[in-house]
Write a structure and sequence with these properties.
This protein is mainly alpha-helical. It is built from 13 helices and four strands. The two termini are 22 Å apart.
Length: 368
């Protein structure tokens, strides 16, 4: 234990002397949280919508006002049918609503009036949002005007739990915690391991009586403490800027953060053991760590959308499980009953990364 602590103190001393490493550990994660926290928006707003009202009646104007009252569309003026199509072709409008000349007369005669809606389908998700929004708004308009031809037998009363205000920060920011802690502690740990190889000090370690497990645990402990400092910093900044606070029992979050920090550090050490230079180590962490945590964790896209067999990769990505912990702690607040399986999975992956790194480092050591 004494040799592990000595190795930890040596790493922390080198970490404090290297300003670039210190900036990589604390300044870049905070910057990433700010940029991604404000830049990523999943809910489409301010969609440019062209309106061509050939009826120009009070009823048609009321319908148009109802469309823009959703605060999801912004108006773009258009003169005729050709101009609406041109606006969509030029990318100035994402949709166009064309109201026929007999709109109000057909409705007053209790006859259906066909309103043409043209939607730019280049972005499939955006087109689906526009279509559903216009359908829902039209349905609400008919109800408000008393123009519904028949009463509905089933009426759904929808209530949003956990995030009734639909704040996107409650979804994005807890996920960012997992992505950030998956990248930077691993990057610091892998650079520390590769530095020993590039400076030649790894040979002295091989010749000493320091075992592979003690070396990994000593370096891992140092950057585990750094990772906890990073976690505290980004969570404090997330609470200050985005008003994301703990919703339930904080103990699963504390345990999960400790396990995930250890998993990230040992993964970085694993990459460092397998890499021969800094460039290869950084590329290894960036490609496997960042991309896996971004794409295979459920940070933005549901894991159910990833086709088989590519989706199996998510099972060995620790961020996939830690995101469940953070989103439960900061949004749902279910506690141990909702995240115990994720905590076990993170612990098993931590043990797996340490074992693989230990085996690789032990084979590289010089024989007695």
């Amino acid at each position: 234990m004494k040799r592990i602590w000595s190795q930890c103190r040596k790493e922390l001393a080198q970490f404090r002397r290297d300003r670039l490493t210190f900036a990589l550990a604390f300044i870049l994660p905070l910057g990433m949280l700010i940029i991604f926290g404000y830049a990523i928006r999943l809910e489409t707003k301010n969609i440019p919508l062209a309106i061509q009202d050939f009826d120009r009646s009070p009823l048609s104007r009321s319908y148009v006002e109802r469309l823009f009252a959703t605060n999801q569309f912004q108006p773009i003026s258009g003169g005729g049918d050709r101009e609406a199509i041109a606006l969509i072709d030029q990318g100035l409008a994402k949709a166009a609503v064309i109201i026929p000349p007999d709109f109000s007369r057909q409705i007053k005669d209790q006859k259906p009036s066909a309103v043409q809606v043209l939607v730019d389908g280049t972005d499939v998700n955006n087109a689906r949002v526009i279509r559903n929004s216009i359908r829902a708004t039209t349905h609400f308009f008919l109800q408000a005007q008393g123009l519904q031809l028949r009463t509905e037998a089933v009426v759904a009363r929808i209530r949003l739990w956990f995030n009734p205000g639909r704040k996107e920060s409650l979804f994005i920011v807890p996920g960012l915690y997992a992505v950030i802690l998956a990248i930077f502690p691993a990057l610091l740990a892998t650079l520390a391991m590769v530095r020993e190889k590039e400076q030649g000090t790894i040979v002295q370690i091989y010749a000493s009586n320091l075992s592979a497990a003690e070396l990994l645990l000593g370096k891992g402990l140092a950057y585990f403490l750094v990772a906890l400092g990073e976690a505290l910093g980004i969570m404090a900044l997330g609470g200050l800027l985005f008003h994301v606070g703990v919703a339930g029992n904080p103990l699963p979050l504390l345990l999960g953060t400790g396990l995930f920090a250890a998993a990230s550090v040992f993964y970085g050490l694993l990459i460092g053991v397998r890499s021969s230079n800094r460039m290869a180590a950084v590329q290894g962490v960036g490609f496997t760590g960042f991309l896996a945590s971004f794409l295979f964790s459920g940070f933005i896209y549901p894991l159910s959308n990833i086709p088989f067999p590519i989706g199996l990769i998510a099972n060995i990505v620790p961020a996939r499980y830690y995101i469940d912990v953070t989103r439960d702690a900061f949004v749902r607040g279910a506690g141990w009953g909702g995240v115990w399986l994720a905590l076990i999975a993170i612990a098993l992956l931590t043990l797996l990364f340490f074992t693989v790194a230990w085996r690789g480092l032990r084979r590289m050591q010089l024989p007695d």
